[in-house]
Amino acid sequence: MKVYFCGSIRGGRDDARLYGRIVEALREYGTVMTEHVSSSELTERGEDSSAAGDRFIHDRDVDWLTRSDVIVAEVTQPSLGVGYELGRAVNMQKRILCLFRPSSGRKLSAMIRGAADGERFLVRDYSEEQVAEVLEAFFNTVKRT
């Protein structure tokens, strides 16, 4: 199974350590196509914008998104890029799990929480200690469908 993980990069890297824990847990379910999102070396400036730059990053990531089987997004840190990826994934009719930590004190965008349909687009409030449990529940439903 190919898993596309979404997390904030240019929107803020405060949750990078948590992204690492999530990516590690996701490896139990398949190939994580976007492991770099969890890298502690990645800053808010984004990837080393090679000569190809932003267009290269966009096209590569959309290709990975297209080839993925499921999307898992940590949406606590607001990110325009993650919102864009989720919109594209909805249009592609991908199975999506969004993870949100209410303990952050933030409110999740209505465009994300409101998109939840209980089947293809799921939003789960969680705490860091619940990562494995929430992922297991999601992937158990993915395997059944």
Describe it:
It is a single chain. Helix content is 39%, strand content 16%. The protein is of the alpha/beta class. The chain has a five-stranded parallel β-sheet with strand order 2-1-3-4-5, with helices on both faces. α3 links the parallel β3 and β4 (95-100). The chain is globular, with a radius of gyration of 14 Å. The two termini are 13 Å apart. 28% of the residues are buried.
Question: What attributes characterize this protein structure?
Answer:
145 residues; alpha/beta; five-stranded parallel sheet; 5 strands; 16% strand
In a nutshell, what does this entry contain?
The chain is of the alpha/beta class and 145 residues long. It has helices at 16-26, 53-67, 80-91, 110-113, 131-144; strands spanning 2-6, 31-32, 70-74, 95-100, 121-125. β3 (70-74), α3 and β4 (95-100) form a beta-alpha-beta unit.
Write the layout of secondary structure elements.
Elements: E1 2-6, H1 16-26, E2 31-32, H2 53-67, E3 70-74, H3 80-91, E4 95-100, H4 110-113, E5 121-125, H5 131-144
Parallel strand pairs: 1-2, 1-3, 3-4, 4-5
Gross geometry: globular
Regions with little confidence, pLDDT below 50 for 5+ residues = none
Radius of gyration: 14 Å
**Structural class determined from secondary elements:** alpha/beta
Q: How many strands?
A: 5
Q: Work out the helix count.
A: 5
How much β-strand is present in the residues? 15-25%
The end-to-end span amounts to 13 Å
The SSE order reads: EHEHEHEHEH
**Residues in helices, as a percent range:** 25-40%
How can the largest sheet be summarized?
5 strands, parallel
Mean pLDDT: 92
Sequence of strands across the biggest β-sheet: 2-1-3-4-5
